């Protein structure tokens, strides 16, 4: 078991559709391969970006198996309404050789109960004891894992090696102050695209799980590299990381809303990846206004980045 998978940058893959709105696993594998070739350390499959609530357990497992079979390091999301399903995904991930687990809280049923969540987490961690795992903390799942619960779980499950924080800047600071600073063997992953700089520089995060990185892998990898250099004390890197954070902010902020998959699939279509044009539900679509705003912001960022990135210095060193 190597926890190193949670020390770099990885995209949360979306699930492309065939014309009959079924998962296109061939396209999924191609996208995973492109991400690794671009410099990502691993890929995440079936977190929120993968539309896990819209897929069957069988489809999710097939996607994981296809990615692992292609030789890709895969971190598997365990989101489920019931614990038995989450456990099945964890056990399958270990069986096929996944690189890591993203342990998602129990949703809907007793989701606010600390005891129910503790038992849910324990069952998942027990089902895949040889795979390094991080707790996925997100307000969208309706439960916040705090330090006392995290360390109670870690005392019994050494495969729990880290924390993925999606809740924003204040939540990242809580995780840094109360969890990862208590044990230097525990890693913090930034889970929200708008907080990469803050998480790495101010909270000691070792990496990021990204949505916009599916669309702009070079730019996101540059942001994490600049942020890590800034965290080591480079004033120039701090300035450039802040500039890039501000410029990419709107595109990154799509990660925070309910239409995140719709936005990022549309941006991939703008990149020429037509297999992301469709969604599993035919009525899931951006409005004309949303689409036009997305396209305007995408064009603005691309023009800015083409000009800004020519400045050299630490930008060139981190590219």
Account of the 3D structure:
By secondary structure, the protein is α/β, with parallel strands linked by helices. Helices cover 49% and strands 11% of the residues. The protein has helices spanning 25-38, 57-69, 83-96, 114-127, 147-156, 169-180, 196-203, 217-231, 235-247, 249-253, 260-270, 288-308, 314-318; strands at residues 9-13, 43-45, 74-77, 100-103, 133-137, 160-165, 187-190, 207-210. Strands 1-2-3-4-5-6-7-8 form an 8-stranded parallel barrel, surrounded by 8 helices. Helix 2 (57-69) links the parallel strand 2 and strand 3 (74-77). Helix 2 runs parallel beside helix 3 (83-96) and helix 8 packs antiparallel against helix 9 (235-247). The radius of gyration is 19 Å and the shape is globular.
Uncertain regions spanning at least 5 consecutive residues: none
DSSP strand count: 8
* Mean pLDDT level: 95
Helix % is 40-55%
Decide which structural class fits the backbone: alpha/beta
Give the DSSP E fraction (strand runs of 2 or more residues).
5-15%
Features:
single chain; 319 residues; alpha/beta; 13 helices; 11% strand; globular
List the helices and strands and how they pair.
Layout: E1 9-13, H1 25-38, E2 43-45, H2 57-69, E3 74-77, H3 83-96, E4 100-103, H4 114-127, E5 133-137, H5 147-156, E6 160-165, H6 169-180, E7 187-190, H7 196-203, E8 207-210, H8 217-231, H9 235-247, H10 249-253, H11 260-270, H12 288-308, H13 314-318
Parallel strand pairs: 1-2, 1-8, 2-3, 3-4, 4-5, 5-6, 6-7, 7-8
Helix pairs in contact: 1-2, 2-3, 3-4, 6-7, 7-8, 8-9, 11-12
């Amino acid at each position: 078991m190597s926890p190193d998978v949670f020390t770099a940058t990885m995209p949360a893959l979306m699930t492309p559709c065939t014309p009959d709105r079924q998962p296109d696993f061939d396209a999924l594998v191609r996208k995973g391969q492109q991400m690794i070739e671009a410099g990502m350390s691993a890929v995440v499959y079936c977190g929120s970006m993968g539309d896990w609530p819209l897929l069957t357990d069988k489809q999710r497992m097939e996607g994981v198996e296809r990615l692992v079979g292609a030789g890709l390091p895969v971190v598997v999301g365990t989101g489920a309404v019931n614990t038995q399903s989450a456990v099945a995904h964890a056990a399958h991930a270990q069986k096929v050789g996944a690189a890591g687990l993203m342990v998602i809280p129990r949703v809907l049923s007793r989701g606010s109960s600390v005891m129910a969540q503790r038992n849910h987490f324990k069952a998942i961690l027990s089902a895949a004891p040889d795979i390094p795992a991080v707790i996925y903390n997100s307000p969208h799942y309706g439960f916040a894992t705090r330090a006392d619960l995290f360390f109670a779980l870690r005392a019994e499950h050494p495969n729990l090696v880290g924390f993925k924080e999606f809740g924003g800047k204040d939540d990242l600071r809580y995780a840094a102050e109360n969890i990862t600073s208590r044990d230097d063997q525990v890693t913090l992953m930034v889970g929200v695209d708008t907080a990469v700089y803050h998480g790495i520089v101010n909270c000691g995060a070792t990496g990021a799980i990204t949505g916009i990185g599916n669309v702009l892998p070079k730019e996101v990898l540059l942001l994490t590299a600049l942020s890590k250099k800034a965290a080591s004390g480079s004033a120039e890197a701090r300035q450039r990381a802040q500039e890039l954070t501000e410029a990419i902010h709107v595109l990154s902020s799509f990660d925070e809303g309910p239409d995140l998959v719709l936005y990022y699939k549309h941006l991939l279509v703008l990149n020429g990846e037509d297999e992301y044009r469709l969604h599993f539900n035919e009525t899931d679509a951006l409005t004309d206004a949303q689409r036009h705003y997305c396209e305007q912001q995408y064009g603005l960022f691309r023009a800015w980045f083409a000009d800004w990135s020519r400045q050299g210095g630490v930008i060139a060193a981190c590219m």
